[in-house]
Amino acid sequence: MDMTSESSSPGDPPRIVAPSILASDYAAFGAEAADAESAGGDWLHLDVMDGHFVDNISFGPGVVQALRPVTRLFFDVHLMISRPDRYWRRFAEAGADGITVHVEADHDVSATLKAIRSAGLKAGLALNPATAWEAALPHLQEVDLILCMTVVPGFGGQAFMREVLPKIRAAAEARREGGLGYHIEVDGGIDESTAREVTAAGANVLVAGTTIFKADDRHAMIKALRQV
Ligand code: DX5
Ligand code: ZN
Fold it and tell me: Is 58 domain-assigned?
C-alpha cells in the first residue's frame, strides 16, 4: 500500500494522520477501523502491548488479521513488546504494512529492521521519551520511519511531553543532512495544539487516538490535524 498522502507543498514530506485504534470502541473494532478510513485517516495505527515492555496488554496478530479485510488503510503496527524479533513476522503475515520496533527492546535492532525490510514491509524505529536521539544514529539507513514517543508508552489519553521536541528537531536535521527519506512520526497526546508544535519541529506523521476517536466529528478532526 502507498506510504504517501497529500503534501502540503512540493518537497515537503507528506503529512499523514494515523488514527490509533487503541482509543476506539473495543466492542466494535471492525466498524471503528472502517470508520477511521471513511473519516479520512491515512494510516491505521495499531498498538501492540505485551504487559512486559509496557504496563498494559492490548491485542495480538489475530486482531490485526481480523481487521485487515475491513479497510485498505496502511497498517502501521507499533510493537511495544520486549521481543519484537520473535513476533514481528506474525504481524506481517496478519497484514501489517509497516512495523515499528523499539530501540529499548531486547533484540538485535539492526537485524530486526533489516529482516522487516527484506520481507517487503516498511521498518520503523521507536524511541521512548527518555531515550536520547543518539540511540537512533546507527540505524538511520535502516529505517523508513522514526517514531518519537511523546508520552511514556502504555496508555492512550496521556499528556503530551514537550521535552521531546528537541529530539524531533534532531531527527529532522539528520534527515536533511543525510539526504534521507524516513518519516518522522509522533505518538501520544497529539491534538490540534500539540500537532502545531510537532510539525513545526519536523514531524510529518501524526498518531492520534483520543483526539480522533472521541471527537464529535472525526472527519473534521482528521482534516484539521492534516492542515495544521
Ligand atoms: C501509547 C500508544 C499510542 C496511543 C496514543 O502507548 O502508543 O499510540 O494510542 O493515544 P493518545 O493519542 O490518546 O495519546
Ligand atoms: Zn503507538
Answer: yes
Pairing of strands 122-127, 98-102: parallel
Residue 6 lies in a domain: no
- How far is residue 155's CA from residue 57's CA, in Å, rounded to a whole number? 10
Domain range spanning residue 182? 16-227
Give the nearest ligand 1 atom to 21 CA.
9
Point out the ligand nearest to the CA of residue 195.
1
Q: Which residues are known catalytic residues?
A: 47, 187
pTM, rounded to two decimals? 0.95
Domain count across the chain: 1
pLDDT of residue 1: 47
Residue 13: predicted pLDDT: 84
Q: Which of 77, 99, 158, 213 to mutate to test the pocket of ligand 1 (most atoms within 8 A of CB)?
A: 158
58 vs 75: CA distance, rounded Å: 16
Residues of the chain with pLDDT under 50: 1-2, 4-10
Q: What is the CATH number of the domain that holds 193?
A: 3.20.20.70
Q: Which three cell numbers stand for residue 89?
A: 513476522
Q: If you take atom 1 of ligand 1, which residue's CA is the nearest one?
A: 153
In a domain, 8, yes or no: no
Give yes or no for residue 13 CB within 6 A of ligand 1.
no
